[in-house]
């Protein structure tokens, strides 16, 4: 196995244990907040605010990582905050305190994500961008499947949200151990991508901004799982312990879609990018307008859209910007993505309480509009 692949696998293992931790918590966040007295609008706002923090602050962390060139330090700070907040949810007795911890977890993710993606992009230059990011996302999603299943088992056996959150301290510690191993084994990941292309270093290219606008529209229309889980609970479509299982199934679809679309991207970059929006817009009416069987089908499509977002959208961006500005570009991209996710989630939460058809219409329209922008960039070979 070549060093670049081993490095991608190493970061994938870090993400695997990290996802067990925070995706396990995320799969319970909607019902947990509802049980503490939060309304649908509050749940939607917290979910959107979390994504805004998780994405919106990435501009600053990406810019800082590129200027300091201390990518590993940024990773340790981000993962430390990201993973410490989750087990503390076991102590939350009010929805306000739970909200603070959920937002702190997203803040940690905002710190470390641009640096991680920049390092991955260097290694993926040797394996194919789509395949490299797809492999990382597939390993990531093994954790995203395992975490919800673990908390579902604890919840079914003990009937306690606190016990489920406390158990997640174990994979959090494993993630930090794996990250430490990665730092010792691969101290200089930037060396994976030697300079072999002339770049315009003065500004980010126009194609980047068009592409980012398309991603923002996608995020605006993409329903957060906290709102989906709230809907499943309120409509009594599933018992509480089965809601994380539904999320786990979507994460499994995410992993498969990331691998398949990532491999496709390396041969024909344009089309796989469009599927991030197409899957999402098809999922919306199924998730909010139908029976349990519709919701299950919608979650499969929702997971496939996430897989495309986390593999081919990230891979495509690496093709557009120079290596020394990549963390900054990822930060800007995810910052605008997160702002759009926050605004969209808040709006969808309000519409949920007033007009379900309007919720679906807004979701579908925004994601359909994103396809038009994704078709424009000429930077994707």
Structural features, described:
- The protein has 381 residues and is an all-alpha fold.
- It has one domain (3-185, 204-374): MFS general substrate transporter like domains (Growth Hormone, Chain: A).
- Helices cover 79% and strands 0% of the residues.
- The chain has helices spanning 3-35, 40-56, 58-68, 71-84, 95-124, 129-158, 161-167, 169-185, 206-221, 225-234, 243-265, 270-289, 292-310, 312-318, 326-352, 356-374.
- It is globular, with a radius of gyration of 19 Å.
- The model has no long low-confidence stretch (mean pLDDT 87).
The number of domains is 1
Q: Can you tell me the CATH class?
A: Mainly Alpha
Helix content: over 70%
Count every beta strand, where a strand is a DSSP E run of 2 or more residues.
Answer: 0
User: Into which percentage range does the β-strand content fall?
Assistant: under 5%
Overall body shape: globular
CATH topology: Growth Hormone, Chain: A
Distance between the termini: 28 Å
Q: Average pLDDT, to the nearest integer?
A: 87
Number of helices: 16
**How would you classify the helix and strand content by structural class?**
mainly alpha
* Major sheet size, sense and barrel closure: none
Please identify which CATH superfamily we are dealing with.
Answer: MFS general substrate transporter like domains
CATH architecture call: Up-down Bundle
SSE sequence, one letter per element: HHHHHHHHHHHHHHHH
Query: Unreliable segments (pLDDT under 50, ≥5 consecutive)?
Result: none
Radius of gyration: 19 Å
